[in-house]
Amino acid sequence: MPGKRARRHSSQLSELERGLIMGMKTARWSTCRVTGQVDRSECAVRNCWEQWTQEVTHERKTGSVANRNTTRREDRSIVRQALVDPTVTRSTIRSDVGIGIVSQTISRHLAEANLKSKRPFRALSLTLEHRQLCLQWCQARSMWNVTDWQRVVFL
């Protein structure tokens, strides 16, 4: 089946296949030629070879998988709180959930739900009256020279 061949990755290679890939690539075989011999995708062969050249090993890493601290129900609760009140903080969400989780966990759950933090808009828009007052101030000082402006202190 041609579809299955493309789905095999370097993490699914047997030790024998890894050894064959290392031997053929060390003998300067092309990646295309190696894929034909081992019946694996080019991506798998390339990843296996890159891992070996970087780490000088062809064995798979045994990674540790972190245990989930929250249930799916608590995950939904975190996302729901952020949707209902976009200004809610992570510490507020943490206290509402009721279990001991770190704020990074909350951020990860919100990122998984495609919710991004938004900064509040700090500057207020000027009203018509404010704009007119600014214009009058500028017009009154339009003819000032450098010595006049040196006497003004801007904060």
UniProtKB/TrEMBL annotation:
Chain ranges of the Transposase Tc1-like domain: 75-140
One Gene Ontology term from the biological process aspect of the record: DNA transposition
GO MF, any single term: DNA binding
Protein name: Transposable element Tc1 transposase
Species the sequence originates in: Trichonephila clavipes
